[in-house]
């Protein structure tokens, strides 16, 4: 499983993201930095979505691409009307009395261009497609708008034969992701429209890990221990211990603009730490991280998350997408259609690759003390951000890397 951790044209400090205040007016943000105008709204939505998913899946791995989900739902709003559209946009965090719908879509259009047009060492493939029953006829205006703003499309499937429709959708996504994403969901259970969002990533660390992994115990809980290969590097790393949340934080950079935060809560506190995460938390960490010599061990593993987002979106107050009164007349003006599923899949492979050859790190006199050892051998959290657009690319809870 590989996943796209994305970068753009030049490096900007990650801490800049968290200095944007949510109360900044949309117009001012857009004038100063159009490629970051969505950042506060998207990141707040990201943390809310992540927390809801974790609460619905205790003791399980959770992995999502929040910015990809925001893009998919904003695209879907083009096909809605009335209270359905209002509830969806407000659920994404937009105050539609302060920002026009056209401006929302223009900002997402710009963000997507940034995420897709990088010429760096990182790759990212992401997309959203709306599948509809072939008995329907989508409006040309809807097809044109989602193509214009989101480079997306609507495709027909034979929903009268659920197994056949499922195969059609799986084959489409498999081809779009060069075989990286398969088995996206089970057979189609009911007719309607299905929104499918996918993303995979390949990236390289700015500072690679040792190519030889080490097998160690990972303590899933008090009764379950598994053996996993551990990535290792001994180098100068940004890190801290947060006594307020009882967790250790490590910040690692990818080639380009990708930044990863690895968060190691004290034993038994992973869900507690996740419940407290906000933009303010990341800002505080970014301002207090210190650089020091660290012996770092992180599991070498693959993780993916495949989610039908119906329950979590309903729990977040966007139940109108699935209600009897939902209005998708922006997609088709034929018989009222229902949204059957919102399916999202994100995939990540965590390995040792980097652009530079691994080398011995010289320790300066100021760093001549014994290195810290940070061992990720119990449940932890991973957050990945794109520094240029200030987007929350990935959020994950790793309960069991095996």
Automatic annotation (TrEMBL):
GO terms for molecular function: serine-type endopeptidase inhibitor activity; steroid binding. SMART domains: SERPIN (SM00093). The keyword Transmembrane helix does not apply. InterPro entries: Serpin_CS, Serpin_dom, Serpin_fam, Serpin_sf, Serpin_sf_1, Serpin_sf_2. The keyword Cell cycle does not apply. Keywords: Glycoprotein, Lipid-binding, Secreted, Signal, Steroid-binding, Transport. Pfam families: Serpin. GO terms for cellular component: extracellular space. Its main location: secreted. It is found in: Secreted. Residues 47-401 form the Serpin domain. It comes from the Eukaryota. Residues 1-22 form the signal peptide. PANTHER family: CORTICOSTEROID-BINDING GLOBULIN (PTHR11461:SF34), SERINE PROTEASE INHIBITOR, SERPIN (PTHR11461). Major transport protein for glucocorticoids and progestins in the blood of almost all vertebrate species. Belongs to the serpin family. This is Corticosteroid-binding globulin. It comes from Tupaia chinensis (Chinese tree shrew). The lineage of its organism: Eukaryota, Metazoa, Chordata, Craniata, Vertebrata.
């Amino acid at each position: 499983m590989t996943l796209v951790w994305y970068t753009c044209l030049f490096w900007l400090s990650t801490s800049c993201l968290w200095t944007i205040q949510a109360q900044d007016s949309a117009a001012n943000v857009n004038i100063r930095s159009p490629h970051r105008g969505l950042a506060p709204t998207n990141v707040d939505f990201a943390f809310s979505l992540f927390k809801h998913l974790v609460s619905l899946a205790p003791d399980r791995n959770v992995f999502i691409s929040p910015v990809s989900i925001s893009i998919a739902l904003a695209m879907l709003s083009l096909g809605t009307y009335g209270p359905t559209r209002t509830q969806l946009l407000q659920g994404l965090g937009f105050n539609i009395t302060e920002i026009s719908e056209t401006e929302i879509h223009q900002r997402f259009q710009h963000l997507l261009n940034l995420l897709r047009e990088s010429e760096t060492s990182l790759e990212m493939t992401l997309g959203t497609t709306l599948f509809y029953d072939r008995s329907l006829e989508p409006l040309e205006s809807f097809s044109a708008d989602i193509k214009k703003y989101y480079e997306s499309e609507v495709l027909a499937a034979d929903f009268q034969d659920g197994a056949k429709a499922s195969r059609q959708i799986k084959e489409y996504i498999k081809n779009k992701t060069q075989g990286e994403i398969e088995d996206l969901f089970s057979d189609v259970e009911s007719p309607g429209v299905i929104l499918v969002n996918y993303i995979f990533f390949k990236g390289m660390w700015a500072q690679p890990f040792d190519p030889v992994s080490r097998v160690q115990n990972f303590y899933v809980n008090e009764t379950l221990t598994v053996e996993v290969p551990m990535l290792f590097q001994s180098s100068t790393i940004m890190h801290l211990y947060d006594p307020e949340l009882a967790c250790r934080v490590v910040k690692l950079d990818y080639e380009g603009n990708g930044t990863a935060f690895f968060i190691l809560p004290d034993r038994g506190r992973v869900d507690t730490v996740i419940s407290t995460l906000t933009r303010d938390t990341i800002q505080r960490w970014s301002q207090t991280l210190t650089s020091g010599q660290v012996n770092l061990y992180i599991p070498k593993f693959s993780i993916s998350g495949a989610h039908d987002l119906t329950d979590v979106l309903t729990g977040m107050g966007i139940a109108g997408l699935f209600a009897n009164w939902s209005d998708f007349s922006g997609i088709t003006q034929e018989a009222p259609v229902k949204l059957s599923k919102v399916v999202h899949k994100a995939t990540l492979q965590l390995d040792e690759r980097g652009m530079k050859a691994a080398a011995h790190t010289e320790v300066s006199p100021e760093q001549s003390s014994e290195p810290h050892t940070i061992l990720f051998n119990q449940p932890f959290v991973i957050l990945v951000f794109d520094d240029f657009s200030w987007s929350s690319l990935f959020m994950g809870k790793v309960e069991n890397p095996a």
